[in-house]
Specification:
Main location: nucleus
Strand content: 15-25%
Number of helices: 17
Helix content: 10-25%
Subcellular location: Nucleus, Nucleolus
Keywords: ATP-binding, Kinase, Nucleotide-binding, Nucleus, rRNA processing, Transferase
Family: Belongs to the Clp1 family. NOL9/GRC3 subfamily.
Distance between the termini: 61 Å
Largest sheet: 10 strands, mixed
Protein name: Polynucleotide 5'-hydroxyl-kinase NOL9
């Protein structure tokens, strides 16, 4: 009964109060008089507050449009370019075999035999396409021989530089590009776009995209490894590729461009359509100055970017072959094949795969690839999130159970969504309360239907020492695990191998091996431990085991990107200027209708509002009804309860007893919320420091504060710094 239909109320956006226990310090809140409230309705608890609409910030220029950067890259590429030592020979002409000459053609393209044994295609009309095909037929079948596509263009490998000018064409009327790829050719790029497979098949991060399917968004930001599109072999080798390609290209290209690409279409070709992509997420992220180059190549790849291709104007920047995309080792591929085969085969119940390994070893990437491959064979995959610091579908600090039905073709911040079940733990690490972590995971597992036959993938933290390793032992014992995939690097797993034999004697935080007596081996009471398949994967990508040092590549930056992506849901889905958070309309909630709790530390009741104002809160549903004696309801301890989403506690009205909350959660779900939980996950600083439309001091930010006092500033830990003892190792 909490989130009812709302009533409007006008409030100033400059409402702030002092902020003692947190790192952001707020000014005194100013709220307009109650006489300005419109449309009072006592039965409605949640109301609208209209904010002032402000001018959006001006985004920075596109990476590829910078003339200085373009000239510098071109000069470097010319200076390092060398002539090949060996001259490549083109394929010799091959005689047309009898089987090819006698192969039946569809009725659409009937053939007539020439005196030299070749055939020319005829069409029913004298259209422009007909003339193109006549020239193409003559060039292919002249003098009774079949001239193959240029060997330099058709060979497997990376498409970059000059090759893209021969196999890619831009549309004249619409801003898109068509690319013809041969089998095993790849396109590695930075940027973002929509990809549609018009002909054949291509693969991206394990997911196969075929003709006739929908368009898929591809995200290749500088924060993660670049995406690679790879052309696959055509599953139907008997189709008439020439006639179908003509009809396909006619819809997207002009005659001259169509004629150029038709010469490169073979039975093993794939044709893809690339279109620019602009979403509320990308608009919101690009409104911040420090994120304006997020989808451009990082500094280390500047000299490897190819800036003069038909794809650049679409937001796609190809990379040369010296830049690696997703690198799979032999054990990596074998583990994927083993798990996928088990999920496709007949096993007892559904497959439950637990993926573990130390930090920065590629667990999330392995899981995304595995999910994408499984979606080639099944309609959905269940995902249990156990990594608090690097969550896949939610902001950090959450444990969740999700059903994945769409491929994951980008890093976590590009596919934020609301899980079926979620619990807000409130911290990026569970070391302060191990029991609450395990109890939360068990609560999520109990909410999953035990009759489901969908594969389940369990993600774990990169904490594999001490208590972290004991948590892994507990999880293998608590859940019906069928496969344990343990990732390592440099020939080691950085912790003991979690084999079934090892688990017979291993101790966890909550579970322990059974106590055996000397009589057990002579009695039938002793039951053998449940077995599972243990797979070891050695990852070999560049920088494995080390945290990224480039911009946007640190773990804390990844967490901020996920939270910003979640907050982008507050923006309108329609194209338009980006609205800062202080200009959006918040809900107002009575203090007596919801309970307020802090779950990551102890805060005195008198300081609770100071800590919560201007912070991120979880919107949760307690099992019992919230009762108040006339004042705010404060929780004495952290509960384990369902969470339906997040909101920003924009202000607190102490006189009228109201919370002002911004959230993108649907009002029908908000009616069930009766608890606001504050954790250690704070708003990104750019949210507070970038507020266009204000002159002077910004809301929620103050400069009238002395950081010279002992303990005045927030203690920051720089995990990337090396200790003196480690230098030179």
């Amino acid at each position: 009964m909490l989130f009812n239909v709302l009533r409007p109320h006008r409030a100033s956006s400059q409402f702030c109060i002092s902020h003692h226990p947190r790192s952001v310090y707020l000014r005194v809140m100013k709220v307009k008089k109650p006489s300005e409230v419109r449309g009072h309705a006592k039965s409605q608890k949640w109301k609208d507050v209209r904010g002032k609409r402000l001018r959006p910030p001006v985004s920075s220029s596109d990476f590829s449009s910078s003339p200085v950067m373009h000239r510098m890259i071109k000069e470097h590429q010319v200076s390092v370019k060398k002539k090949p030592n060996v001259k490549r020979l083109k394929n010799k002409a091959k005689l047309v075999s009898d089987s090819k000459k006698s192969a039946s053609q569809p009725e659409v393209n009937k053939s007539c035999t020439r005196t030299n044994g070749s055939s020319a295609f005829t069409m029913d009309s004298d259209s422009e396409d007909s003339q193109d095909w006549k020239e193409y037929s003559q060039s292919i079948h002249g003098n009774g021989v079949e001239i193959s596509v240029d060997a330099e263009d058709a060979r497997p490998g990376r498409l970059d530089g000059e090759a893209l000018h021969f196999c890619a064409e831009r549309g004249d009327r619409q801003n898109h590009a068509v690319l013809v790829m041969q089998k095993d050719q790849t396109l590695c790029f930075r940027g973002k776009c929509f990809l549609t497979c018009l002909y054949g098949r291509v693969e991206v991060m394990g997911f196969t995209i075929e003709e006739g399917q929908q368009s898929y968004p591809l995200f290749s930001p500088a924060s993660h490894f670049p995406l690679t599109v790879r052309a696959l072999e055509n599953s139907d080798g008997t189709r008439d590729d020439r006639s179908e390609a003509s009809l396909i290209l006619r819809k997207h290209l002009a005659a001259a461009s169509r004629k150029k690409l038709l010469k490169r279409v073979t039975s093993n070709s794939s044709i893809i359509l690339l279109e620019p992509m602009e979403t509320p997420l990308t608009r919101f992220l690009s409104s911040f100055t420090e994120l304006s180059e997020l989808f451009s190549p990082p500094v280390s790849e500047l000299m490897s970017a190819v800036l003069d291709t038909p794809l650049n104007g679409l937001g796609v920047i190809p990379l040369v072959s010296s830049v690696e995309g997703l690198k799979m080792s032999k054990s990596y591929k074998e583990a994927l094949n083993s798990v996928v085969s088990a999920c496709k085969g007949d096993i007892d119940g559904c497959a439950v795969i637990l993926v573990c390994g130390t930090k920065n070893v590629g667990k999330s990437t392995f899981i995304r690839t595995l999910i994408n491959i499984l979606l080639n064979h099944t309609t959905s995959v269940d995902y249990l999130e156990g990594d608090l610091g690097q969550t896949e579908f939610t902001p950090a600090g959450c444990l969740s159970l999700s059903t994945v039905r769409e491929p994951l073709l980008g890093p976590p911040f590009t596919h934020q969504r609301t899980p079926e079940h979620m619990i807000y733990y409130g911290q990026s690490s569970c070391e302060s309360d191990l029991d609450r972590y395990l109890e939360s995971l068990k609560s999520l597992w109990r909410r999953r239907s035990q009759t489901r036959e969908t594969p389940v993938i369990i993600n774990t933290m990169g904490w594999v020492k001490g208590f972290g390793f004991q948590l892994l032992v507990d999880m293998i014992r608590l859940f019906p695990i069928s496969h344990v995939v343990q990732l390592g690097h440099s020939g080691s797993t950085q912790c003991p191998a979690l084999t079934p034999d090892f688990l017979r004697t291993a101790h966890g935080c909550q579970t322990h091996p059974p106590a055996h007596t000397a009589l057990d081996e002579f009695t039938e009471r002793h039951t053998p431990p449940r077995s599972y398949t243990h797979l070891i994967v050695q990852t070999e990508f560049q920088g494995v085991g080390c945290q990224g040092t480039a911009k946007h590549q640190r773990s804390n930056e990844h967490r901020e990107l996920s939270l910003l992506a979640y907050l982008s849901q507050l923006q309108s889905p329609d194209p338009g200027p980006v609205r800062p958070l202080h200009s959006l309309t918040p809900y107002q909630v009575p203090h007596t209708a919801v309970a307020l709790g802090v779950i990551h530390c102890e805060v005195a009741p008198s300081h609770m509002f100071y800590a919560a104002n201007g912070s991120l809160v979880g919107l949760c549903c307690l099992g019992e009804k919230v009762t108040s004696k006339g004042g705010p309801v404060l929780l004495p301890q952290a509960p384990i309860c369902p969470c339906v989403g997040f909101g920003v506690l924009r202000g607190i009205d102490m006189v009228r007893g109201l919370y002002f909350l911004l959230t993108a959660v649907d009002p029908s779900i908000l009616r069930n919320v009766n608890c606001l939980l504050l954790g250690a996950i704070s708003l990104p600083s750019c949210i507070l420091t970038t507020q266009p439309g204000f002159e002077g001091e910004l809301p929620y930010v103050t400069t009238n504060y002395s950081f010279d006092l002992t303990g005045a500033g927030k203690l920051r830990v720089f995990k990337g710094l090396m200790r003196p003892s480690q230098i030179g190792m």
